[in-house]
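S., here's the first fold you wanted:
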Amino acid sequence: MKAFYSIVIFSVLFAVCMAKLTPEQRRELEAKLLSECKGPSGATDDDVKGLREHEVPKTTTGKCLLSCSQEKLGILVDGKLSIDGLKALGAKKHEGNDKAIATFNEIVAECENISDSDACELGAKLMECMLNGAVKRGIDPKEGIQD
């Protein structure tokens, strides 16, 4: 199976689950996405580094960087979690791998009731939930779902 990668981030970005991309293409897309969100969120280089290392942000600027990324990926829409957007991203990432899609959707189901009136906090809560769901299933979020 392809790596679970970051939707757990980016949902990360993690997430940068945009299709069957090579690792280099994924890194380039991730860098572009983070670059586009860094200025508007006021994020620091440390915030960017933390997200790239699959760490749930602790700073407000890091959380807003994550939230911006999630919005660009369709995971957050108008400051609210889009389960359909999240599932669509996972389906695209794991296209052709029904087992990976099912596992991804199980994790999403555990996180579907996450809410917060602050979009930045919501993004961080979602990332934490997705990471916990992956770990609970023995998946290393940095490695992703393996065959």
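And the second, which I think is the more interesting of the pair:
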Amino acid sequence: MPPKQWHPRHFDPVEEAVRKRTIWQSWAALPAPTRLKISLGICAVAVAGIFVSDRLEASVPASPNSTPYKTSSKS
């Protein structure tokens, strides 16, 4: 007897349910300590980015002729 071939329509019911989850449902399905660790990690990266940005801005000041946006010379 030949071995069974895998077919895209033959999904495990549990796997199919997981595939139909929204991002929010997948997030809510994670254990609370895992969600906390991920959230704290994201916050730590954000705070580090703010400090690095401030240090970089202090060490490399903008030139006096630079502008934060392009100006058009329409009259």
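Why I say that: Residues 19 and 26 are 10 Å apart (CA to CA). The chain has a mean pLDDT of 82.

Talk tomorrow,
H.
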